[in-house]
Amino acid sequence: MAKTKTRILVVDDNPTIRKGLGVRLRANDYEVLFAEDAISATAALVVEKPDLVILDLGLPGGDGFVVMERLQRNDRLSSIPVIVLTGRELAGNRDRALQSGATAFFQKPVEDSTLLFAIKKALDLSRGELRFDQ
Amino acid sequence: MTTPPQPSSNLSAYLSHELRNALACIHQFGNILLEGLAGELTGEQREYVGIMLQNSSKIRSVLDGALDGVPGRPEKSTNKIERISKLET
User: Fold this and answer.
1) Going residue by residue through chain A (134 aa), what tens digit of pLDDT does each one get?
2) Of A35, A36, A73, B78, which residue is most buried, by most CB within 10 angstroms?
3) Which residue of B has its CA nearest to A133?
């Protein structure tokens, strides 16, 4: 039986960013889903239940904090790790994102190796595969 | 691109959003080209893409300092995955 790929939902209103992340993640053997606003992101979370979300903060239809709030309120979805990747300033956004349940916060542009490392760690943590000494 | 805001208090938020997104696109696709994900490059092409990426990194450092008060950051930054570090301990 074919191994099921890990599915990552990329939420960003910039189509070029979505495309670039799609190329990068597929090259690293992830299946990639896309959403371009907070409403379609919420719908994709409920319907697709991805393994991880890469979330921009500045989105049409409600920002990334709204998406995280909806995620946290849903017992079926609250365990999905969220990595925030944003063009917003650090002040007022990083701490709020981490307090809202984000696993990691990065400003654009982020090094590919750094993002891929964070994805792997976040997935390991959510699956309970990471030991305390790792 | 959205219309630039008039009040100066919103200027850095506007610049951060617009410049970081544009820079992220240059950075992403430059690395995609350099790694051959869109086909192999010649040595000369690799050199030119490398120059482009080096200069995008310089702009990023300037942005970090000007907009967020971060005096440049290393190529492989780990300073923003503190939540993961917290969960590990």
Assistant:
1) 666 999 999 999 999 999 999 999 999 999 999 999 999 999 999 999 999 999 999 999 899 999 999 999 999 999 999 999 999 999 899 999 999 999 999 999 999 999 999 999 999 999 886 654 44
2) A35
3) B88
CA atoms of A133 and A129, how far apart (whole Å): 12
Residues of B in contact with A24 (CB under 8 A): 28, 31-32, 37
Residue A72 phi/psi, 5-degree rounding, is -65, -30
Domain-embedded: residue A80: yes
Residues in chain B: 89
Q: CB-based contact (8 Å) between B76 and chain A? A: yes
Whether A66 maps to a domain, the answer reads yes
Of B37, B67, B84, the CB nearest to A23: B37
**pTM, rounded to two decimals:** 0.85
What are the residue boundaries of the structural domains of chain B, listed by start?
A: 9-88
Contact B28, A20 (CB under 8 A): yes
The DSSP result for A51-108, as a single string, is SEEEE-SS-TTS-HHHHHHHHHH-TTTTTS-EEEEESS-STTTHHHHHHTT-SEEEES
Any domain includes A132:
no
